[in-house]
Amino acid sequence: MLKQLTRMPRLLLVAVALSQLVVSLDYLSMSVALPVMSVKLQVPTTTLQWALSAAIAAATIFLALALLPGRSSLRRARRK
After folding, report:
1. What is the pTM of this model?
2. Structural domain of residue 48, as residue ranges?
3. What DSSP line would sit under 2-70, residue for residue?
């Protein structure tokens, strides 16, 4: 049981790192596609940049909030 508890933080770190990589690649592709989207949607690029920044902020906040329950459950498991 102790081996599983010591392995869990490592697996959690790997999972968070991979998810952050996927999110970063998604926003990179969005940044590259911004000029084309601006022309196709007939919206100024600055407006799309605000939308992309808001999406990045929302994803960051969601990721931080999603980690809190996992962290607290790990602490509870260590106490038992």
Report:
1. 0.52
2. 2-79
3. HHHHHHHHHHHHHHHHHHHHHHHHHHHHHHHHHHHHHHHHT--HHHHHHHHHHHHHHHHHHHHHHHHHH
